[in-house]
Amino acid sequence: MEKSDLLQQLRIDRSEPAPRVRGGGAWVAGALVALLVAGLAGGGWWWLRGAKAVEVELATAQAPTAGGSGPLAVLQATGYVTARRQATVSAQITGTLTDVLIEEGEHVDQGQVLAHLENTAQKAQLAQAEAGYKAAQAQLAQIAAQLAQSRRDVARAEELVGRKLVSKQAVELARTQVEAQSAQLESQRRQVEVAHAGVAGAQVQLDYCTVRAPFAGVIIAKAAQPGEIVSPLSAGGGFTRTGVGTIVDMDSLEVEVDVNESYINRVVAKQGTEAILDAYPDWKIPGHVIAIIPTADRGKATVKVRVALDQKDARIVPDMGVRVSFLEAASKEAQAAPVVPKGALVPAASIVQRDGKSVVFAFEGDRARLRSVTPGQAYADLRLVEGIVAGTRVVRDPPAELVDGARIAARAVSK
User: Fold this and answer.
1) Taking Cα atoms as reference points, which of 75, 119, 112, 104 lies closest to residue 378?
2) Given this model, what pLDDT does residue 9 score?
3) How far, in Å, are 6, 187, 193, 227 from residue 129 at the CA level?
4) For an engineered disulfide with 327, which of 65, 71, 139, 298 has Cβ 3.0 to 4.6 Å away?
5) What is the CATH number of the domain that holds 392?
6) Parallel, antiparallel, or unpaired for β 344-347 and 86-89?
7) Would residue 363 be called left, alpha or beta, if left means φ above 0 and alpha means ψ between -120 and 50 degrees?
């Protein structure tokens, strides 16, 4: 066949009219276009949603050791750090402050001067008492000298009466004078003691004008300034201070927690504890139970428990929030033949509920994979679970919108 014949066959015959599309066909075509646009829009939205990764914090599941991670936590409770030895220091008398020698955060020793009060009147009273004491002593010396002379006179009179040179009446008068002066001397001695006590009392009143630290500690509050009036009693309305400052003995810090009365049977005296401060969540402080206060709060249905901190540190300050785990020591049989628990330890916060089941979200590639787990024993802030192996990276505190297969990005990794 010639080339020209082939081209002729490929040529379109425009002599016949093109078929028209009726109204129904146009509607079908419009619907197809709308579906196509909607599909493209939905696919774009789905692509954008899948492309955006959710930022999460990850943690690594740990392998439990023999006997678990030490003693088991049988109970957890929250409370606050308190000071067993704390005092708001005030003056013994009402007076005006002349100077205040403390500032917040300053360490003071026992007996250290904290403030002074106006003491002009007290100094005058002390000077008056000392003068009275000296006068009483001088009077005592005078009476003692007179008594000595009277005794010599009696001795001479007794010698002369033997020689009939004086009468017996004169001797008796001399003896009476000696007895009277002896009684006067004893009375003056008591007056000297009274004057001495007056000096001591005036000295005490003067010492009250100096405010001293009752024990060593740290100043946590400065309550008054020079020129203000302080009083041990609440008087004078808002113009009178009842304290100069507050001192805390940092060595007496302990923890007070409220334990639900339904679980107080799990707590005993001297029981081991582990405290975690809200300010330092990665710092575990060992301790032990001091005492269980033998009364319940009927409003909160709790019992107060005092817990001692076995480690002292400057970072621990009063009124800090703290979470305490009460530990149960392992039995002697378990210590002799320790058994490694099955499963892995994950943060308790990584375990969430989905469709009534306990699950965790494992980090695989860049996706979150839902894994069903069986929670077991709690170890402080960790939880033993079965269903994943040690080394698996899990999402800590999974958000409610996180689903299986969602893209995630690690914000931070912690052990």
Assistant:
1) 75
2) 54
3) 145, 19, 12, 28
4) 71
5) 2.40.420.20
6) unpaired
7) beta
